[in-house]
Every structure is written in structure tokens, then in C-alpha cells.
Amino acid sequence: MIELFDEDFDAIELVEGALILNKAVDPNTQEHWAELELARLLEEAEQQLFHLRDDKQRLDSLLRLFYTEWQFSGDHDAYFSSDNAFIDKVLERRKGIPVSLGAILLFLGRKLGLPLEAVTFPTQFLIKVCWPNEGPSYINPYDGKYVSKKRLHAWLIGNEGPLVKLQAKHLATVDNPTVIGRWLALLKSALLREEKYTLALQCTDLALTFVPDDPYEIRDRGYIYQQLDCHQIAATDFQYFIDQCPDDPAIELLKTQVSAISRSPVTLH
């Protein structure tokens, strides 16, 4: 498989881009197995849907196959686990979150010729269904159920407040690089929560490939280095953030940490 950033993510399927990301973060990702499993699921879906000629029936059958027969589902027990952001683990466990389940469902549906598109709604990832001469409908990939605009508006109010209005931009089709960028941030957050700092550092380094001078990514990298006992490097990153974002609420705390590090003896490993 191609290396991260070596090719246009819009030239491949979202799930393929996610696998590239996963492998770049964790070399132990079962990339080849995941590719074979995706191909196996696609072949099984093609066989089961072969007799159907109506695309709407094909989509309904695919959803039943995915969520009932194959038993893919949202991970209600450990929603924020990093396992839910690694495609190989989602395929193995048959559990995930909207973006990982949605990426797999998008792959299958698009390979079957169904008009499915990705949407990064403010509260979660959605799949947009665009039938000819009809308004779009939306699927929640967490459970495979259709979501009305009224429900989407309610989600938006819960996220942004009672005055927010549902707008076209909230339901716009999004490109793969945008989704992959958010996936990377989600994965980093999960790894930090699990104290898997070496893998989290890889996420930050990848993010800085896109925006090398992002002060918030550099601040996060400093925090990770601090957890890895690389205090001098952490102080350098914290100082960069202090210089670039002097009005940030966290500045005083970071100044205190930089001062403490500067007074500590340097340990040579």
C-alpha cells in the first residue's frame, strides 16, 4: 500500500486512506489482513445482492447485511478507545465509531455502485445518500439507521446551543483529506487518553507534516515529550507556543512548567 501523503487521498477510498494513516501511526497495523477482509466482505455482498436490480433495495439489503448478519455495531462500551480508529481492529471486533464504520460501509456501497457520500456533521460522521431526482437522505453509520433533518437539527442544538440553525454547510459532502485530518486528531486524542505516548507522538509528527508551524500541535507535542521524560524538548515546544499564542488561557501554566524545567538538571541518557 502507498505511504502516507505520497498520493492524493481523493484518488482512493476513504477506508484505504484510513488504513494508510493507521499504518503510519502504528507499524503493527494488520494492513494486508484488513485489505483481504474488505475484499472478502465485498465479494460476499456482491453475491448476496446479485439478484437485486433496484438500487434502493440493494442499499437496504447492504444495511441489513452489514448491521444484522455481519453484526457491525457502534462500540457502546468503549466509544473513545483507539481500537475504534484502527480499521483492522474495527474489522476484527466488528465494533467502531461513526467514522470508522462509515468508512467501511462507504467502501462497500460505492464499490457496489450506490450513490453514497461522506459528511462530517458537527456532531459525528454521516453517510449521505443521493438518489437521482430526489433530495438527499442521511444514514447514521453508528447503527445503520436513517436520520431525519429534524433529528439532525436537534443534535446540532445539543452541540452548539438553541439558536443554531441547520444549514447546507453542515450537510455538505466532504473530501477524503478533510476526513483523514479529523481522523488523525481523533486517533491522537484516544492515544493520549490511553497514555500511549509514543503512538500519540507519531500522530503529532504526521499532523505537523501538513502544517509545520501549528502552535497547538507543537504544544501537544511538548506535552507528549514531557510524558516521555524529554523535558528539554518539551520546554522548547512550550516556549514556541508561548511566543506564538501569548493570549491563550494556558500560557501562565506553561510558563511555570518551562521555568521549572529550566531549573532542573539535565539528565543524559
From TrEMBL:
InterPro entries: SirB1_N, TPR-like_helical_dom_sf. Gene3D superfamilies: Tetratricopeptide repeat domain. It comes from the Bacteria. Signal peptide: none annotated. Belongs to the UPF0162 family. PANTHER family: F-BOX ONLY PROTEIN 21, SI:DKEY-261L7.2. This is Protein SirB1 N-terminal domain-containing protein. The lineage of its organism: Bacteria, Pseudomonadati, Pseudomonadota, Gammaproteobacteria, Vibrionales.
